[in-house]
Specification:
The protein has 30 helices and 20 strands. The protein is α/β, with parallel strands linked by helices and about 725 residues long. The strands form five sheets. A six-stranded parallel beta sheet has the order 10-9-11-12-14-13, sandwiched between helices. The chain has a five-stranded parallel beta sheet with strand order 1-2-3-7-6, with helices on both faces. Helix 6 packs across helix 13 and helix 18 runs antiparallel to helix 24. The longest helix has 25 residues. The chain starts with a helix and ends with a helix. Bound molecules: thiamine diphosphate (TPP).
Length: about 725
């Protein structure tokens, strides 16, 4: 049947239409079953009135999707129309939530991974009675400033759990949400944390590579409360999915450790039965729901023509007739609206009962739960940072910044129990697992360290899901060069303003022998180009703990900590309470005293300002000495975070940049981005192409990222002035 259907989707569409026609002849009076439908525990498949009521409720989604896309003159009607039956059963009978409190921590999560079908979500939220999702928002679909952008954008207040659009991300976010649920349930008990994560995923979601990383991790961790409804319509943009795909998704999920089944996605009884079974499963569940894209549209339904364009007035009129939908555009008949509202009201008693259980919880535990769900940092953070700094001041360390990061984590993860760490199979290299941290596994969800496997993309997207879920600060590790494998998820974390922290070690040619495949060159610049992402590159152990503190305090966005493999000297000596990295760039070493140069002594009159980040700060410090030996005064400015620096007031920035005759920056990466600090007339010492395989000191010499090169560059510039 599958192959016939995929080869002849229109035939399949017609079959669905015929079945639909059987239900559309029921006269209006029989629809009075209304809200009673929402009360039943199982779908009364034998009850024609209840079935008709279901159809009318599902058709409300279809009508709103057709109308909104038509009015916007763009959008995707096919998925909302095809998946309307699935969504109706899920939202009216299974999902636990309360529109009156969209952020209720113990609500079930729903992720529309196929974000292009956004009108499905907007229609459902409107129908259920989410306060902010008024009909005016539906009418302003895809317009500037509306709550109904082209793809769903995370807004907890209006019930959108995550931003989706790049296919596959939502599914992987949901895995993170399901991990968060299991973890918090293990800590706070199932009376306080006990909810499901539902996903609606499309063919495209499951074709994307990230889906494999996500489902493999979910299966391994036995995330039994994760339920994926697959909108198995066999159509994508180019036509039948058979053009490019012949995977048996049910088998694929099964082999990843999931329970998986295939049903008719237009049969509410089958949908309900599959969901009932999924709720009993000891594994995550896939329900592949056979649907017809654009269900109801007479000529475009079942074809790619329904996917991503308005159906047109004639097709909409014909679809309305077929569906038995006579209400004008954007109008929902009162009986149907009431039935949806009744479904929306289902969760209120559960929420109130939960609030009572929370109130009855031990006071300390309750305070901790609330602190974590409100993203409040504990007061212990400052003390932990101070403690590490004092230790480093008493006994300075020449260590790699990745090792300094481990030292920081040893202290921070004790102070912040909400930190959940991990690594994409580079735990020993990334130094992200403090010795005392237990592993989170299917047998122990209370653990706090996740072995993500070699799955950088899935890891980064799951971290977004954990942050979105709340109660957790996810951090993890990989090599900086593999930030490319995480980039789509990091970009979404930045767009959504989610606090996730990526430890990315082996941050330059300084990693040495692994060679150019592993040596990031353009990555710092590429990451700095992402809006609302902070890229920290500390120069030593003291800056490392300071950058960690700043990343943790950045509640409104993600951070990357770029850390060295190789040892670096501790340049920051002596105890300094202030977090100097908070300024993004600061004068680390002033120009030498005036005795060695008539121009020396202050930022304004130094001959040379040397700017550097990370391991190259030590290069700049050595260059300063070489210049001093030649009677040239140079100051060193450490630049651990462009984003903090560029956000500082102009006068502050000008003071840090100074007025030396020559500005030179040194970083073992490409120049891109540095002009904002050194000016387009500044000199840059760094990389212009890929690295090479050799011991790292040889590489620094080979590529000229050395104190001598910095010195020569500065001298040449001074002579040219
Ligand atoms: C990562 C990514 N690549 C490409 C797209 C563009 N795109 C949007 S929907 C889609 C495929 C549509 O097929 P399917 O997922 O089956 O959705 P349906 O046609 O059933 O609505 C594509 C390629 C995207 N949104 N994300």
């Amino acid at each position: 049947m599958l192959s016939v259907r995929r080869l002849f989707p229109i035939t399949a569409a017609r079959q669905h239409e015929r079945r639909l026609a059987r239900f559309m002849t029921i006269p209006d009076g029989l629809h009075a079953a209304g809200a009673a439908l929402a009360q039943a525990s199982h779908f009364p498949s034998a009850d024609p009135a209840a079935r008709a009521e279901h159809d009318r409720m599902a058709n409300a989604i279809r009508a709103l999707a057709m109308d909104a896309v038509e009015q916007a003159k763009s959008g995707h009607p096919g998925l909302p129309m095809g998946a309307a039956d699935v969504a109706t059963v899920l939202f009216t009978r299974f999902l636990t939530f309360d529109p009156a409190d969209p952020a209720w921590p113990d609500r079930d999560r729903f992720v529309l991974s196929a974000g292009h079908g956004s009108m499905l979500l907007y229609a459902v939220l409107h129908l259920l009675g989410y306060e902010k999702m008024k009909i005016g928002e539906i009418k302003r679909f895809r317009q500037l400033g509306s709550l109904t952008p082209g793809h769903p954008e995370h807004r907890q207040a209006s019930g959108i759990e995550t931003t989706t659009g790049p296919l596959g991300q939502g599914l992987a976010n949901a895995v993170g949400m399901a991990i968060a649920e299991r973890h918090l349930a293990a800590l706070f008990g199932s009376a306080i944390v006990d909810h499901k994560t539902y996903v609606l995923a499309s063919d495209g979601d499951l074709m994307e590579g990230i889906s494999q990383e996500a489902i493999a991790l979910a299966g391994h961790l036995k995330l039994r409360k994760l339920i994926v409804l697959y909108d198995d319509n066999g159509i994508s943009i180019d036509g039948p999915t058979a053009l490019a795909d012949s995977v048996d998704q049910v088998q694929r999920f099964k082999s990843a450790g999931w329970a998986a089944t295939r049903i008719d996605g237009h049969d509410p009884a089958a949908i309900a039965a599959a969901l009932d079974a999924a709720l009993e499963s000891d594994r995550p569940s896939l329900v592949a729901c056979r649907t017809t894209i654009g269900f109801g549209a007479p000529t475009k339904g079942g074809t790619e023509k329904a996917h991503g364009a308005p159906l047109g007035a004639d097709e909409i009129a014909a679809a309305r007739a077929r569906l038995g939908w006579s209400a004008p555009a954007f109008e929902i008949p009162a009986s149907i609206r009431d039935a949806w509202r009744a479904a929306g009201a289902r969760g209120r008693p559960a929420r109130l009962a939960w609030a009572e259980r929370l109130a009855a919880l031990d006071a300390d535990k309750r305070a901790e739960f609330e602190r974590r769900t409100h993203s409040e940092l504990p007061s212990l953070l400052a003390a932990a940072v101070r403690d590490v700094k004092e230790k480093l001041s008493a006994s300075p360390k020449e260590i790699a910044t990745r090792v300094a990061s481990e030292m920081a984590l040893d202290a921070l993860t004790v102070a912040l129990p909400e930190m959940v760490g991990g690594s994409a199979d580079l735990t020993g290299s990334n130094n992200t697992r403090p010795k005392a941290m237990k592993v989170l596994s299917a047998g122990d969800y209370a653990g706090r360290f996740i072995h993500y496997g070699v799955r950088e993309h899935g890891m980064a997207a799951a971290m977004n899901g954990m942050a979105l879920h709340g109660g957790i600060i996810p951090y993890s590790g990989t090599f900086l060069v593999f930030s490319d494998y995480c980039r789509p998820a990091i970009r979404l974390a930045a767009l959504m303003g989610q606090r996730v922290i990526h430890v990315m070690t082996h941050d330059s040619i300084g990693l040495g022998e692994d060679g150019p495949t592993h040596q990031p060159v353009e990555h710092l610049a590429a990451l700095r180009a992402i809006p609302n992402l902070k890229v920290f590159r500390p120069c030593d152990a003291v800056e490392t703990i300071e950058c960690w503190q700043l990343a943790l305090e950045t509640t409104g966005g993600p951070s990357v900590l770029a850390l060295t493999r190789q040892n670096v000297p501790q340049i920051r000596q002596g105890f300094d309470e202030a977090n100097r990295c908070a300024r993004g760039a600061y004068e680390l070493i002033a120009a030498p005293s005036p005795s060695s140069s008539p121009r020396a002594g202050d930022a304004a009159s130094a001959d040379v300002s040397l700017f550097a980040s990370g391991s190259e700060v030590a290069v700049a410090v050595a260059a300063r000495e070489l210049l001093a030996a030649r009677g040239i005064s140079a100051r060193v400015v450490s630049v651990p975070c462009f984003e903090h620096f560029l956000a500082a007031p102009e006068a502050e920035r000008a003071a840090v940049i100074g007025k030396a005759r020559v500005n030179v920056a040194v970083e073992a990466g490409i120049r891109e981005g540095w002009d904002a600090i050194i000016g387009s007339d500044g000199a840059f010492v760094g990389m212009t192409g890929f690295g090479a395989s050799a011991p790292y000191k040889d590489l620094y010499r080979h590529f000229g990222v050395t104190p001598e090169k910095v010195t020569d560059t500065a001298l040449a510039r001074l002579q040219g002035r």
